């Protein structure tokens, strides 16, 4: 126990990313629970008196939860009736959290994501995610476990303080710590000093970390992540193949069709479907396409060369199938050449990727992002950072991504020794910030850093600024 | 000797059990497909004594399992008495300090009083408040100036890392100096001085250094390439130079050796003015080649006779090399005095030929019709034989040199002819040289044969 410096105190680790939430026990190598951060919510006018379950007794609410007919058989139970304190006594919100819940069609179910740009915007939904993580998934008593939570490096102090309040006031954790996700990612590959490139669902960021501390002036980020890639793929499919994907929930019967032919299927009757639900389902289909078919060109993008590469077949849920060649590479090129490959504003049929010309002009390729971030740091530090580029986030999982980076970076910094570290397995790369947190919270030397409830009660939420930096 | 004898000698009691392993070994079966004889030769399994027995530890059911307890603990590194719980072995009665508390190292950042600040630390560029702020950051971030500079946000001040370092080290230095001056004890003065030295910070130098690094960092690929190419070129030139120098030296040495060999015996007593007088410096042949060897007076005389005609022509050249050759001679004298201990036959004393030359020398000897070892190794024959060997080696060496010079010359000539200038008559010299040495060898060998 002592030899590796670990000392388990049954701490919990929670990482709420823009796409996935990961929760688990410190000291383990994968989170116990991984579920989408997006949740479903149905608002109804309430007349029932028994839906007055208070916030302070979340567990009591659990058995009372109505069983919905759409519940998935695997017991992925996260649906929860909750009285919305802010929106008047008459409104009742029912939350559906978890992979099975969110993707089950329900009338009038809105899909929301509590995060925007990596920051918490919708605190109510965020709280629901916490509840779901601790009560439904981990099934623990929060008063018995210290909690380590990750946050983006650019989290402003008000949001940090709110998180502290949430942990101590709402959930009654005995101890809490807020760790920067970039630092955690660096820890997860065994580094205290690194340049962390994290490309997740909504954001791509380059963050210099020195000795376990984020250098704030070097932080660079842009809202170009996996979601933008998916949105552009959707546009591209519409433009070149005149195809728009029909998600699984609408499909009754389908027939096999020849490649490139319009799909033949009977649509299910799904009245009162919300736009957000439809969009999420469409995105899901596209994500799958993206994750199985797309690839990053290992060397600078050259259509003639890449067109000669083998094609890959893919069938969408509605039966539409085709083989994809150059499209596989074109879709991801925006990560490295956003100025040329992002859809211009005003393009017809543009889906999600709505960037202004100004934003497009300001966008940087991933290699440029890394380079600029490092150049924002002290000259003495640069060799160290170049030698410790840590690549993480689901969006970096495209085959060829690391190779491309390995090709582009030396061109920018010709005299520097560059080394890129990327976790081998996809879970490790998607959960790197959770994993770093898991390592940190199980170290014996870390336990002096927790913010304890006593400290919080003495100094208030602002204590987070002096304890977690 | 039986086992009981050994036990007697070592004074060990009888083994409690009769060794059952032995019995087993005797029973050990011969594997199929190997003849009995072969098997007895191989000896079956290797002796057990040399193999560490590799038993699996048996699960002990008698011993009680040590229970683990979920125990509360407080961390002395904390001031709030946070109680956490972890699993420990029940017999682990380390109720005292938390194991990991000792890793809580705190860096001491100097503190100063208001009074001290007023007296010694005033700086037009810094207010007390800002200095306090800086020192708080230093404490907070354990003097990691990279982080301090990154997080430095004092209203109305933009400070570079160098500014911060200068202030921090300046304050420390001033405090150390003043406190040293005011303290009465002088015994650790030395220590204080070195401490003060450690806190000196040259901001301009640091800025300069970083600028230089920045320039280095901002080199374009072309510049780096050029730099690398220049570096490689420089290395190449250097190596070439070294090679040339080495070759020249070799040549010089060789010529010297040759000269000395040819001329030295001809100068009776102290040689020419250039060489410092060395009593008993009747150095015979074999200088610098294959080590020194015993010489007989006859050898000397013979040599004298034979090389006489050449003395004059060589003298001039030898003189120019005098200083070097004298040192060579010294070496040889030392070697000569070495006597092989024990009994030996005379022919053994003939110096061995360098391995890479053996074949070539052998070939020449063969041409001359002389066996590779003297048939009748009398002192005289041996001496002559040795002389012959040396001469052959010299000849071969010279030949090689000449060949090289000639090819060099040829190259130069073709180059020059391309340039249109006629070449001087170089090759003849070389050929003459070779002829000379060849005739020399011939003479010697003829001599030798006569004697043999
Ligand atoms: N194998 C894959 N190839 C390409 N993209 C992937 C892959 N796996 C996940 N992604 C994308 O990565 C994004 C999620 O990354 P993640 O790091 O989990 O995000 P976050 O930290 O924001 O929750 C999604 O947009 C998803 O489509
Ligand atoms: Mg993330």
How would you describe this structure to a colleague?
The complex is a heterodimer of chains A (469) and B (452). Chain A starts with 11 loop residues before the first strand and ends with a helix. Chain A has 469 residues and is α+β, with helices and mostly antiparallel strands. Chain A is built from 18 helices and 22 strands. In chain A, helix 5 (181-188) crosses helix 16 and helix 6 crosses helix 7 (275-293). Chain B has 452 residues and is mainly alpha-helical. Chain B has 16 helices and two strands. Chain B has helices spanning 3-10, 20-27, 36-42, 114-121, 128-140, 145-151, 161-182, 189-198, 203-217, 221-263, 297-307, 311-320, 322-337, 355-368, 379-419, 426-451, and strands spanning 68-74, 83-89. Chain B has a two-stranded antiparallel ribbon with strand order 1-2. In chain B, a hairpin with an 8-residue loop joins strand 1 (68-74) and strand 2. Chain B is flat and about 105 Å long. Chain B starts with a helix and ends with a helix. The complex binds adenosine-5'-diphosphate and magnesium ion. Residues 17, 181, 198, 200, 393, 433 of chain A line the site of magnesium ion.
